[in-house]
Specification:
The structure holds 2 protein chains of 2 kinds. Chain A has one domain (2-88, 103-220): Fumarate reductase/succinate dehydrogenase, transmembrane subunit (3 helical TM bundles of succinate and fumarate reductases, Up-down Bundle), CATH 1.20.1300.10. Chain A is 73% helix and 0% strand. Chain A has 9 helices and no strands. Chain A has helices spanning 2-8, 11-36, 43-55, 57-88, 103-106, 108-127, 147-155, 158-185, 194-220. In chain A, helix 8 packs antiparallel against helix 9. The longest helix of chain A has 32 residues, at 57-88. In chain A, 28% of the residues are buried. The model of chain A has no long low-confidence stretch (mean pLDDT 93). By secondary structure, chain B is of the alpha+beta class. Helix content of chain B is 32%, strand content 11%. Chain B has helices spanning 33-46, 118-125, 147-157, 164-168, 175-186, 195-208, 219-223, 231-246, and strands at residues 3-9, 18-24, 69-70, 73-74, 96-100, 109-111, 114-115. In chain B, the strands form 2 sheets. A 5-stranded mixed β-sheet of chain B has the order 2-1-5-3-4. Chain B has a two-stranded antiparallel sheet with strand order 6-7. Classes of the chains: A mainly alpha, B alpha+beta. Chains A and B meet through helix 1, helix 2, helix 4 and helix 8 of A and helix 6, helix 7 and helix 8 of B. Bound molecules: protoporphyrin IX containing FE (HEM) and FE2/S2 (inorganic) cluster. FE2/S2 (inorganic) cluster is lined by residues 56-59, 61-66, 82-84 of chain B. Residues 56-59, 61-66, 82-84 of chain B line the site of FE2/S2 (inorganic) cluster.
C-alpha cells in the first residue's frame, strides 16, 4: 500500500491519476451531452430518460459515488500538483514569450477552478433544485418528473443562458487541452497517430460544447417551447 | 548596430536582484550574443564596474553551459541553437533586449545570470548511468543493434543538459531532460538491465530537487537547442508505468536520497 502511494505521489504518478480521472470525467461529459440532446425529441423522451436514470437506486448511487470519487481525486491531485508547480518557480520572468503553449494549456488551473464552482452551482440548480425557487418540481401527464419543463423554464431566463454558455466556454478550453494532454501523460503516442491524438482534445471539446450550446440556444431563441 | 540591454543583476543566491539598463553601441552584426556581452563586460571593467556574470565554455553548442533567457525565450529567438550560437544580426536595430537567468527553484542563482544546475547532476547520480565491471573493455560493436534504434538513442543522447527545458516550462519541470536521459539508456542493450530502477529513481530525484510536473505544453521541445522531441516524454511515461507494474522492486526501499553526502 505504501508502495502504491509513493508511486502515485510522484509528479508523474499523480499526473497519471489526473489523466485517468480526467478521461473519466470527459467520458461522463460526452454522455451527459448526448443524453441532454433528447430535449429535441420532446418532453416525453427526456422525462422518460430522466426517470430511467433514477429508476435503479443502485445504479444511480453507484454512478454518483463513482463520479464524486473521480472528481475528488481529479481536483485534489491537481491542486496538489498546482501548488508544487507554483513553488517550482518562485521568481517569475519579467518577459515571457510562448512558442507552443496554447491559451487552453496555460489556463488549466483557472478553467478547472471555475468549472468546479459551476459544477456545484449546476448541481444545486438542476439536481437539488435550490437555486431557482420560481420553478417547483411537478409531474408530467405520464407521472414522470417534468425535467423537460424545468430545462425550458431555466433557459427562458437570459441570466441562466449567459451563465451556462460561459460555462461551455470554460469546459471547451479545459477539455481541449486536457484530453490530448492526458493521452501524452499515459504514454499514448505514435508517429502515425500523433495528429489524431493532438486533435482529439479540440475535436471532442468542440462537439460537447456545440451539443450543449445548441440546447441552450434553441430554448433561448424560442425554437423549443414548453 | 545599437541596442538597449536590460540585464538581470543579482549579487548572490539570497540577495534581491534587479534589472540594470546598459547601452550596447556599435555592435557588429557578425558578433555572437556572448561576444556582445564580452564587449559590454570590457567596457564595464574599464569603467571600474563589476562585469555581468554569465556562463559559457565551448561556445559551439555542445557543452550546455551558456544559459540565458533572451526576450522571454531560453536561448533566444532562433530554434535549435544554444545561446552561444546566436548572432546579433538576428535582432532588430535599436530594440531593447531583456536578458534573464534560468528561473527555477531547483536552479538557485549564483550571481547575475549564472545559476547552479547541480540539481541536474544529482538527478543523474540517482541512476542516469549504467553499471559495468572494470577490467578489459568489451569491443565496441559486440552487441549489435538496429540502425533505427541507434538513431533514436542518439537523438535522446544529444541532450547537453543545459536546462533550457526547465527554464521554458511553466512548471519548471525537468521532464524533457529526464525523459531524454532515461530513453537514451533504455534504448540500448547496455542500459536494459537497470531500466526499471533507473526510470523510478530519476523520477523521484526530479521531484526531490523541486522541479514541477509536466503540463504537456511542449515549450521545452520548442526551446531545446538540440530539438529533442516530447515523444521521449511519452516514452518515459510508458517506461515509468512499465517499471511500476512489471518490476515493482523489493519491498525494502533504498534510502530516499542516496546522495545526501554530495549536497
Ligand atoms: C467536467 C469536468 C472536468 C473534466 C472533463 C476534466 C478533464 C481533465 C483532463 C482530461 C485533464 C488532463 C490531464 C492530464 O493532463 O494528464 C485535466 C487536467 C486538469 N484539470 Fe480537469 N477536468 C474537469 C474538471 C476539473 C475541475 C473541477 C478542476 C478544478 C480544480 C480541474 C482542474 C484541472 C487541472 C488544474 C488540470 C491540469 C493538471 C496539470 O496539467 O498538471 N479539472 N482535466
Ligand atoms: S557555451 Fe557551450 S553550449 Fe553554449
Amino acid at each position: 500500500m505504501t508502495r502504491l502511494f509513493t508511486v502515485l505521489l510522484t509528479s508523474l504518478g499523480s499526473k497519471v491519476v489526473v489523466a485517468l480521472t480526467g478521461l473519466g470525467l470527459a467520458g461522463f461529459v460526452v454522455f451527459h451531452m448526448l443524453g441532454n440532446l433528447q430535449v429535441f425529441e420532446g418532453s416525453e423522451s427526456l422525462n422518460t430518460y430522466a426517470a430511467f436514470l433514477r429508476e435503479l437506486p443502485i445504479l444511480l448511487w453507484s454512478a454518483r459515488v463513482g463520479l464524486l470519487l473521480i472528481a475528488v481525486l481529479h481536483v485534489g491531485l491537481t491542486i496538489r500538483l498546482a501548488i508544487h508547480n507554483r513553488r517550482a518557480r518562485p521568481v517569475p520572468y519579467a518577459v515571457r514569450e510562448y512558442r507552443k503553449a496554447s491559451m487552453a494549456s496555460r489556463t488549466m488551473a483557472l478553467t478547472g477552478g471555475l468549472l468546479l464552482i459551476f459544477i456545484i452551482f449546476h448541481l444545486l440548480h438542476f439536481t437539488a433544485g435550490v437555486v431557482d425557487a420560481s420553478f417547483s418540481d411537478r409531474l408530467d401527464p405520464r407521472g414522470h418528473r417534468d425535467v423537460y419543463g424545468k430545462v425550458i423554464h431555466a433557459f427562458q431566463n437570459p441570466w441562466f443562458v449567459v451563465l451556462y454558455l460561459a460555462a461551455q466556454g470554460l469546459l471547451g478550453l479545459h477539455l481541449s487541452h486536457g484530453l490530448s494532454s492526458s493521452l501524452q501523460t499515459l504514454g499514448l503516442e505514435h508517429p502515425l497517430l500523433n495528429r489524431l491524438f493532438r486533435a482529439a482534445g479540440p475535436l471532442v471539446a468542440g462537439i460537447v460544447v456545440l451539443g450543449n450550446a445548441a440546447i441552450i440556444l434553441a430554448i433561448a431563441l424560442g425554437v423549443l417551447r414548453a | 548596430m545599437n541596442f538597449t540591454l536590460k540585464v538581470w543583476r543579482q549579487r548572490g543566491a539570497g540577495e534581491r536582484g534587479r534589472f540594470v539598463i546598459y547601452p550596447a553601441r556599435d555592435v557588429s552584426p557578425a558578433m555572437s550574443f556572448l561576444e556582445m556581452l564580452d564587449v559590454l563586460n570590457q567596457q564595464l571593467v574599464l569603467k571600474g564596474q563589476e562585469p555581468v556574470a554569465f556562463e559559457s565554455d565551448c561556445r559551439e553548442g555542445i557543452c550546455g553551459s551558456c544559459s540565458l533567457v533572451i526576450n522571454g525565450i531560453p536561448h533566444g529567438p532562433d530554434r535549435g541553437v544554444a545561446t552561444c550560437q546566436l548572432y546579433m544580426r538576428r535582432f532588430t536595430e535599436g530594440t531593447t533586449i531583456t536578458i534573464e537567468p534560468w528561473r527555477a527553484k531547483a536552479f538557485p542563482i549564483i550571481r547575475d545570470l549564472v545559476v547552479d544546475r547541480g540539481a541536474l547532476d544529482r538527478v543523474m547520480q540517482a541512476g542516469g548511468y549504467i553499471s559495468s565491471n572494470t577490467g578489459g573493455a568489451v569491443d565496441g560493436n559486440t552487441i549489435l543493434i538496429g540502425k533505427d534504434r541507434a538513431e533514436s538513442a542518439m537523438d535522446a543522447a544529444s541532450c547537453i543538459s543545459c536546462g533550457a527545458c526547465v527554464a521554458a516550462c511553466k512548471n519548471a519541470s525537468a521532464m524533457l531532460f529526464v525523459a531524454a536521459k532515461v530513453s537514451h539508456l533504455a534504448l540500448l542493450p547496455q542500459g536494459e538491465p537497470e531500466r526499471a530502477t533507473r526510470a523510478k529513481a530519476l523520477m523521484k530525484a526530479m521531484d526531490r530537487e523541486g522541479f514541477g510536473s509536466c503540463g504537456n505544453q511542449y515549450e521545452c521541445e520548442a526551446v531545446c537547442p538540440k530539438s529533442i522531441s516530447v515523444h521521449f516524454i511519452a516514452a518515459f511515461n510508458r517506461e515509468f508505468l512499465r517499471a511500476t507494474v512489471a518490476e515493482p522492486g523489493p519491498l525494502t526501499e533504498i534510502p530516499s536520497d542516496p546522495h545526501a553526502e554530495f549536497r
